[in-house]
Amino acid sequence: MNIQKKINNIQFIGNSEKKGDFYLVKGKITGTLEVECVKCLNTFERKVDEEVKYKIVKPTYHGFDDEYDIIEQEKFDLDEILKSEIESLKLDYNICEKCKNKEFNKEF
User: What is the pTM of this model?
Assistant: First the structure.
């Protein structure tokens, strides 16, 4: 099944396939996201362009998958997955252009 979802400035385009008691979701997350620089703490726009692969399983899954990120959910909810992905990107080690080439090795 083809899927298109947009949350604010972030868009997911991909597809999902039910395989027994789990779903496989493949797609791309694109757009822009306002994030905070970890060095100067100023906010800036980060371009997002990431391929994603999810295996959506029922909770207390004990398996492992080399190809897919495992997500445990009672009911398949792509909105929840995308919101979680957006929050993860915001918490990533984001550095603005101004700080990329600066050294911050100061002793206190």
Answer: 0.78
